[in-house]
Amino acid sequence: MLLPERHFFSYRGRLQARHYRGALIVNDHSSDRTTKAGEGSPGRANAADAGGKPAFSLRRGHEESEPPQRPLHILIGEDNPVNAEIVTGFLEQDGHSVQLEIDGEAVLLAARQRRPDVVLLDLRMPRMDGAEVARALRRHGRFRDLPIIAVTAATTEEDRERSMEAGMDAYVTKPLSRGQLRRVISELVDAKAGRNENATPPAALRRSDLPPADLHAALEAVDNDRQLLVTMFRAFRRDYAKRWRALCEALRDSDLEGVHFEAHTLKGSMASFGADDVVGLAAEIAHLADRGDVQGIVQALGELREALRAFVAWGTQTLAEDLHRSEAVSHLGSDALVGRKVLVVEDSEVTAAMLTQFLRREGYDVAEAHSGESGLRMARRFMPDIVLLDRLMSGMDGLEVCRRLRREPAVEDVPVLIITALDDEASAQNAIDAGASDFITKPLFMPVLRQRLRQMVLSQERHRRIRHLAYHDSLTDLPNRALFNQRLESLHAASRENGSTHVLMYLDLDRFKLVNDTCGHQAGDELLCQLSRVLREHVRDEDTLARLGGDEFGVLLEGCDTEDGAKVAQALVDAVRSFAFFWENQSFFLGVSIGVVSIDPRWRKTSEMLSAADAACYAAKGSGRDCYQIYSEEDEAIQRQTKDVHLLPMISRALEHNGFTLFRQQIVPLHDGVVEPDWYELLLRLVADDGSIVSPANFVPTVERYGLMGRVDRWVIRNACAFIAEREAGLDSCYSLNLSGNSIVDEGLGDYVDQQFAWYGIAPERISFEITETATINNMERALRFIHHVRGRGCRFALDDFGAGLSSFGYLKAMPVDYIKIDGGFVRELLSHSFDHAMVQAIQMLGDSMGIRTVAEFAENRAQLEALKAIGVHYGQGFGLHEPEPCRERAGSRGDACSRRGRG
Asked: What is residue 869's predicted lDDT score, i.e. its pLDDT?
């Protein structure tokens, strides 16, 4: 069957993919005849007469062609031994060197170790098929122009499409002839070298288009050892900030000899990477230092810094895949397998001898067992990296051995390769079900076994790396919070079982934010890396130092009491205190606050210990920072912090999801005949997670300590306006709102109040604000600006808790207020202490003289009300007049409220 012309062959040039159109050559291997498509019989008949599968070429009318002018290094991916022998024989007869790999991943590894001139890929390979290999190769700039040929026995259009989409240059079918293979390779090599008459030469590169370094030159410098290059680059990326800082410090100190030394050192290291720009600039700076040209050095330093940044960015992108692979994985190769432990469990002496000899020659450390029972015993003692296990053995067979290995904690993750003479699907499935990682059939083909073992080691290392990444911090490589919590759970369980004592520490860095804000997150990351190494020096190997997130660390001291834990905590405080961090000519000194908790049987859950450690840490911060605090239930600071730890999440949720609620309490005229709108004070309450109501006395101190009062006040203003608009529309009742000291000096609060009034359509005359005298002490000028702003809109103002402060009377003279709310402490003791009675009288006289009306708080009984009325106080507020009611449920009627006005 003739294939559609657009699919029969493809070249991929430097600038674009080009599909060639030419004669379709069909090889007749039985008669060595060649038939052109379009000549003689129709294409379908020609294909049938050929009696074989079609092969494709670009050359017109020639069956044979000369081999390429130079010997080539050709990499073949082919898992069929017969086909591999045929292709290898053809190529070696033409003088080429051939490297054969039997699966896709091995092809990739071989290509990276030594760049081939041509790659032949079977589309059907284990591990990774030919199309996946081609796709992976094309992702690397190094292989962008590498000729890649698909070789397959299949002729489906889907396979051809996959080959082209994966970036392959040619698609040929089996069986291959020597001449066909010659022509395809010759055409591709000529085209890639730019000798093809249809090839379009690439545009000339501008200097700015060139990469900051020459990857090929760098690889040649290290004998094409890509991993060595990656290791060098990783070391340079880790070190260059320090090298740059040393160069700048030498210049700052006018140490031109030091400038020369640092520039020369930088030049030498960068030459190995082929980074010509950086090498040239470093050489120029060294020369300028010899001449004493400081101004020239300063100018060149700016260019050098940009060149270094460009080089680091280029290297990080070019070597991205290698950099993200663990060192253990990236070193895998023949050398990396040396010393790996392999346990061979095989009851056939011949097979066992063959395997043992082969594995030892490959560099493995081999142990033998000749039965399933002895294999299990050897596995526990030898602790292998891989197990080779015969499927059929007398006594315990290989499948049962595999099942039991998977139940042994010490070796449950060790890869197991089942060796079997059975190659049916059921046998393979049985091996996998028993827990085998892979299986291989007899008779054994050693190249296949070599690759299987290599892939199993690679897979095991990847598994270990994934596990490591899951439980370690990516920045510092310390255990992360997940692993820390696991180990804490383990210590807690041991403590409850045997009464042992251990220590938990929670560390929070002091002044870390200064580094981030001043120098950026890159500096902050470097600081955390350096500091983690400092902290690690002060804990034992069996202890756990973990990064819990941000600038927070955790420590677990195994088998330790709080007395010894306190010594370790002090050592950590001293170590951080004496640590200096340098970044771009700036130096920073930090501190650390540490909470220490004993891990003992009294704790029910680890979460309680973590909360206690957090509370103790913040108690240490409250004590002046740069110190440690041992948790004690009797310590007031810790108890306050513990309370904060429980309340803060609840407060945060309340701000985000309307978890607060408003109550109101009426302010009632004390004298008969007063007719005016109802007047209420709005009171804030917190709705707890269980639905209970939390009073302000319990949560406002926490809100104030953590600087959230401004957000809470805005919540009150917004929701008060919403309540009045929705529930009080058409009424003339008035409401008082309390404001904190943080809010009163907020420059944007006046505009916020105006916005809420406009949005909800609230008349400002219906709102009065209450502030305490202490709220204005820190910034009287801003407070007065806010008061004048809202009073100008029509709002009223009251000075709350009047008389409690030392400066009450002086502040009253300076502040334009409409009401004085007499501190409830005087009202409560009005009848029993003459001083309190005199204070209330004095405040009333002062209010009368200034034309300011008075409100007595905490009015709780009729006797108090009669006394307040006799003194002349205008309004009363308290449980004796009206108990607070929730705003969302209007308790009582207007008639009830009016009846209360008349009570004396």
From this structure: 93
Share of the chain above pLDDT 90, in %: 26
Residue 121, H or E segment: strand 118-122
d(CA 292, CA 41): 86
Q: For residue 747, which amino acid is it? A: E
List the beta bridge partners of residue 439.
418
Helices (H), 735-823: 741-744, 749-760, 780-793, 808-814
With residues binned 3-state (H G I as helix, E B as strand, rest as coil), the percentages for the chain, rounded to 5, are 50, 15, 35
Element containing residue 544 per DSSP (H, E): strand 544-549
CA 771/CA 745 separation, integer angstroms: 11
* DSSP assigned state of 335: G
- Per the model's pLDDT, the better-predicted residue between 751 and 278 turns out to be 751
- pTM exceeds 0.90, yes or no: no
**pLDDT for res 742:** 76
What DSSP string runs through 366-402? Answer: EEEESSHHHHHHHHHHH--SEEEEESS-SSS-HHHHH
Structure tokens given for 242: 């320090």
Q: How far is CA 424 from CA 347, 430, 453, in A?
A: 22, 10, 22
Distance, in Å, from the CA atom of 895 to the CA atom of 129, rounded to the nearest integer, reads 87
Assess contact for 15 and 202: CB atoms under 8 A: yes
- pLDDT at 199 (0 to 100): 39
For 26, 29, 32, 47, 371, the CA distances from 51, given in Å and listed in that order, are 9, 8, 11, 7, 53
Specify the pLDDT at position 505. Answer: 96
Instruction: Give the total residue count for the chain.
Output: 904
Structure tokens at 447: 């190249």
- Give the pLDDT band (50/70/90) at residue 196: very low
Burial class (CB in 10 A: 0-12, 13-18, 19+), 403: middle
Q: How far is CA 590 from CA 507, 615, 627, in A?
A: 13, 21, 12
What is the band of 5 on the pLDDT scale with cuts at 50, 70, 90? very low
**Cβ-contact 900, 668 below 8 angstroms:** yes
pLDDT for 897 equals 34
